[in-house]
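Request: Have a read of the protein record below and say how the chain folds.
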Amino acid sequence: MAKKQKTQEKHGKHGKQAAGTPATVALTAAGAAFTVHSYEHDPAHPSYGEEAAEAMGVSPDRVFKTLVAEVDGELTVAVVPVAGSLDLKALAAAVSGKRAVMADPAAAERTTGYVRGGISPLGQRKRLRTVLDDSASAHATICVSAGRRGLEVELAPGDLAKLTEAVLAPIGRA
């Protein structure tokens, strides 16, 4: 069953300034071009990212999930395609670390200011170092969480990397 979807265009400084999530506010303040996609979130769906891809009718290799890991004790954001998984060794190597483990969900929520399934790489309460899977470069635009379940933002991967000061590295596994 298809989910109800609404799409709104945003065009940086020239778009309408509307109340939004910290992620959309950060994008608007930066003057970045982006599109917001909203859909009805189904709490029973087993995967937030796959649900987003299905609801938006977008290939799962263009929808990226935001994961928070600990690399040598420091929280680090990994942005990888929902179609795959995070390679923790590759993440550690990308930031010159030795060991990476998934972060405690409560610590990730507290530090980013977002709830699990809605963590965005943008507009976080405390800016964390970020690594974007280099497969993002193969697409004109990618989708990431806009800061809550059922809300995605579509933007150019270069803009995401610039705004988050992300390192691009092969951190995803198919």
Notes: The two ends are 26 Å apart (CA to CA). The chain has five helices and eleven strands. Residues 118 and 147 are 5 Å apart (CA to CA). Residues 1-18 have pLDDT under 50 and may be disordered.
